[in-house]
Amino acid sequence: MRVARIAQAGGPEAIEVVEVPTPQPGPKQVRVRVEAAGVNFIDVYHRTGLYPQPLPATLGLEGAGTVEATGAGSALRVGQRVAWSRVPGSYATHVIAGDDALVSVPDGVDAQHAAAAMLQGMTAHYLTRSTYPLGPGDVALVHAAAGGVGLLLCQMGRAAGARIIGTTSSAEKAELARAAGASEIIDYKTQDFAAEVKRMTSNIGASVVYDSVAKDTFAGSLGCLRPRGMLVLFGQSSGPIAAFDPKLLQAGSLFLTRPSLHHYTATRKELEQRAGDVLGAVKAGALELRIHAAIPLDRAGEAHRLLESRQTSGKLLLVP
Residue 58: enclosing H or E segment and its boundaries? Predict the structure, then answer.
């Protein structure tokens, strides 16, 4: 089998594709032939060492494919189509996964769309349904609104009846965010987004800010919240925020949270419910997934460069 891995932390050039022995599944495990692997910022954090892990390490957590072999006691069957959001080593032609990490892919959803839906789709789902459940009367600011998660947040927020304000960096991305459900767009390169949100809301502020940027947006995100509003930090594409005095939240009795998908899919029941909702919506055409590019596994470093450039709109995939 082939894997895209790092021997040491570094830039995109640290990723190398090598051949390794194809493993056999253990008890209650399966070997999956990977058909598409999702590229996410958490993979960048693993590559750079921001989130340290034992080395050498095969990157990737998300994907979709077909069960190729089963271990003793597995409830899955050879030929079954499955998807996942937290199986280490997914940048590969094959992965070993426990039954409990996999969900079935419904007929009518291909492997690329299944892979694109898992991590980002379930993230948008828990953010809008559980962390801050959106509803009519809410105003949500979505940073990077034309990104993979951003487009899904816009769609889910609009479906919940909330008013969505998105930040983007170009006219093309603004149109994508509008089509996904954002009623207003702020160009963060030329406009002060905090001041614009206050202007658009008659100086009241946003109910919630969904922020995957962190370092560059943190102060402004807090500054555009209404009293008792919530800042949801779910990524840090511009880098981690600096230490700050919690009294900063006192100005509006604000809430701050740094959630993780892991804690919102902690039980098998919750994983199946979230994945079922997202994949079901994709199948029904109620949730549109935009795939920016499907890049060969051998060019995994290029995929990371593209993601870090923040020029993408939608999902990046690797295809073995």
Answer: strand 57-58
Q: Outline where the chain has alpha helix (H).
A: 41-48, 111-126, 148-159, 171-180, 193-200, 218-223, 261-264, 268-284, 300-308
Largest CA distance in the chain: 62
Distance CA 241, CA 297 (A): 32
Closest CA to 319 of 87, 3, 36: 36
Q: Which two tokens stand for residue 155?
A: 């769609």
Place of tokens 């998660």: 149
**What digits encode the pLDDT tens for the residues 157-204?**
999 999 999 999 899 999 999 999 999 999 988 999 999 999 999 999
- Rg of the chain over all Cα atoms, to the nearest angstrom: 20
Q: Which residue has the tokens 């690797």?
A: 318
Query: What is the rounded distance in angstroms from the CA atom of residue 148 to the CA atom of residue 118?
Result: 11
Q: Please report the domains of the chain, with CATH numbers, ordered by start residue.
A: 2-118+265-319 (3.90.180.10), 135-258 (3.40.50.720)
The secondary structure of residue 247, as a DSSP letter, is: G
What does the block give as tokens for 181? 């459900």
Task: Classify residue 256 by burial, with Cβ atoms within 10 Å: 0-12, 13-18, 19+.
Answer: middle
